[in-house]
Design goal:
Helix content is 85%, strand content 0%. The protein is mostly helical. α12 runs parallel beside α14.
């Protein structure tokens, strides 16, 4: 290690810690409003309205993945790009997204025919306005990520979530039915781009192929990966909507949203910060391995118990939404377990992209794209729970290759990686046993649902924390020492303990 490296590592550690603080603060601020507005909307609108909105958004998500063409990520992952090349990419991105919006408007009637729902045609036209926002926001966001400007990125995300939540609830209670969900999403995107362009404007320049060819090649790999991943990721909802109807689709999507919440709110919070970090250290294998180890263990300790707990308390948690959502219990349980696996796969893919293995990611996504939709079609014969179970059963195809490739690239042994996850996995097993014993011996079935839910959450959380402190105290203390070192400006010293 050169004399400059400890200072560089200390600076990066402090930036990451600061980024996590900003991201966590923004998430905490918006989480209450987001959940409150979700519950209010779920009580006001029937599952069929959620199903219609989801149908309208499916093709729009695919168009967005294709239209943006990975330009924002290319700006982040390629530090060698000049300001002139970035301006050319900004023009190209805006043009491609505007063209994609026109295509979606023309395709809207066909999408409505596919779903056998005439309302979907007009919904698609409105939802697709998000493509226009994407075209003008991607490059500025990439530049903010490149600058590790976590404060502004957090505020932008908060503005998007709050804008969507306020408009959705306001319109739902004003009698706009499924239009509330659609216009709420558009309002959120407009709020986000307004804040983005206030802080970071990107210039425009006429694209020249010889200058933008390299970033667009990387963008092509990312685009194929995103498109294939998006298609097989939403194909479950599309197939459920097509084969089982809008109400079943609404219930399934609610289960997906609830199961995805812990992974999204904590796992994606961390990865929002670490994406720019790995782009910054991509040429230093030791730092890549170090941060991957720290982040893997941190995510597992935070996300795994929440998902395990959700799977355990799903029946009692449904009282918050109402009896009409009772069919979501089975899918939630399967999806909660799978989301623990998916969260780690997001990190694998993120690091591989930073290390310029985007093509490998693309091949894995194409393999999953070929297999997963067919599995969902078969699973529909047994209902939404079987569709949810398919994610976990086929995770060796969608996740294992990414883990194998990354561990080889960064030269980390598989048993060392599993050792990182051991505290969280063993803690979750003990927590699950404690909750099941509580149900069997404490007479919980005779108590109100709210009391049952609170008791299980309290006991599960206490047992998990006590287990970690008893059997993995040294690891927990090392992380506490690391955080204290960051606060005191001594991250380079604290680094030795990790």
């Amino acid at each position: 290690m050169t004399p400059e490296q400890p200072h560089s590592v200390a600076k990066l550690d402090k930036q990451v810690a600061g980024g996590l603080a900003w991201a966590a603060g923004a998430k905490s601020f918006t989480q209450f409003f987001s959940w409150a507005f979700t519950l209010l909307t779920a009580h006001k609108l029937p599952p069929a309205d959620f199903g219609l909105a989801n149908m309208a958004g499916y093709m729009n998500g695919l168009a967005g993945a294709l239209a943006e063409f990975g330009v924002g990520q290319a700006v982040l992952q390629m530090p060698e790009l000049t300001s002139d090349t970035i301006a050319q990419l900004n023009t190209a991105c805006a043009a491609m997204c505007l063209a994609a919006y026109g295509i979606m408007v023309l395709a809207a009637p066909l999408i409505a025919v596919f779903f056998k729902a005439s309302q979907v045609s007009q919904l698609v036209v409105v939802v697709s306005l998000g493509l226009v926002v994407t075209g003008f926001q991607s490059v500025p966001l990439g530049l903010l990520e490149k600058d590790l400007d976590y404060r502004r990125l957090s505020v932008i995300e908060s503005a998007t979530i709050l804008g969507q939540a306020v408009v959705t609830v306001g319109m739902a209670y004003s009698g706009y039915a499924y239009w509330a969900l659609v216009w709420g999403g558009v309002a959120g995107r407009i709020s986000g781009i307004a804040v983005t362009l206030y802080w970071k404007k990107a210039a425009f320049a006429w694209p020249r192929w010889n200058q933008i060819r390299a970033p667009l090649r990387l963008g092509a790999h990312l685009t194929v990966t995103r498109a294939a991943t998006w298609i097989y990721a939403v194909s479950d909802g599309v197939i459920v909507g097509r084969m089982l109807g809008g109400a079943a689709n609404g219930i399934y999507q609610m289960a997906m949203s609830l199961a995805n919440a812990p992974a999204e709110k904590i796992g994606m919070l961390v990865m929002r910060v670490t994406g720019p970090l790995f782009a910054r250290v991509q040429n230093d294998e030791e730092l890549v391995r170090r941060y991957f180890r720290i982040i893997s263990e941190s995510i597992s300790l935070g996300v795994f118990p929440l998902l395990t707990g959700l799977a355990l308390v799903a029946p009692d948690a449904m009282w918050m939404l109402g009896k009409q959502w009772g069919g979501a219990v089975g899918p939630i349980r399967w999806l909660a377990v799978f989301m623990a696996v998916r969260t780690m796969s997001w990190l694998f893919g993120q690091v591989l992209i930073s290390l310029r293995y985007a093509r490998f990611n693309m091949m894995v996504s194409l393999a999953a794209f070929a297999l997963m939709p067919a599995a969902f079609v078969v699973a529909c014969r047994w209902g939404t729970s079987a569709v949810a179970a398919s994610w976990l059963i086929l995770s060796p195809v969608t996740v294992l290759p990414l883990a194998w490739k990354l561990l080889r690239v960064i030269r980390l042994r598989g048993r060392d990686y599993m050792s990182m996850l051991l505290p969280a996995l063993s803690g979750c097993a003990v927590m699950a046993a404690a909750v099941l014993i509580l149900r069997a011996w404490a007479g919980l079935p005779h108590l109100p649902a709210a009391i049952r839910l609170g008791a299980q959450v309290a006991v599960g959380g206490a047992v998990y924390a006590a287990f970690l402190w008893t059997f993995f105290r040294a690891r927990i203390v090392r992380y506490i020492s690391f955080l204290v070192g960051l606060r005191r400006g001594g991250a380079a010293v604290a680094e030795a303990t990790l």
